[in-house]
Amino acid sequence: MHKILNVALIAHDKKKDTLVSFCIAYESILAKYGLYATGTTGKRIMAETNLDIHRLASGPLGGDQQIGSLIVNKDIDLVIFLRDPLTAQAHEPDIQALIRLCDVYSVPIATNLASAEIFIKALNDGELNWRLD
Ligand SMILES: O=C(CO)COP(=O)(O)O
């Protein structure tokens, strides 16, 4: 299908600092994978790391749906989506649709830092390499 695993990185505004810190901490691991992000998240990560990111539209402008489309095409192998559970989002239906597609296609999705740390270690240990066939 594809030669490297692809990771989607997304964070709501109040979680962007956390995701940037995560990307700095795990930069050497993340650098080995194809990276996709919603617009503002990708801009922040690229400004604060040396990671190369395929940036999509901003979440509220359809970026979550673009990630969803990549999932349907089997081009995303892991989603790290640090959601803000305490702030209403105008594009909540898009967020739910993205999470639903992860379930439809069995794509692992971490929605908080604790699970993101476990998943990135699993990725680095080759636990997701079965997705490469
Ligand atoms: O809103 C988002 C995800 O639902 C993230 O979008 P941005 O990365 O453009 O802020």
TrEMBL record:
It catalyses: dihydroxyacetone phosphate = methylglyoxal + phosphate. Substrate binds at H12, K16, T38, G39, T40, T41, S58, G59, H91. GO terms for molecular function: methylglyoxal synthase activity. The keyword Lyase applies. The keyword Ribonucleoprotein does not apply. The active site is at D64 (proton donor/acceptor). PANTHER family: METHYLGLYOXAL SYNTHASE (PTHR30492:SF0). This is Methylglyoxal synthase. The gene is mgsA.
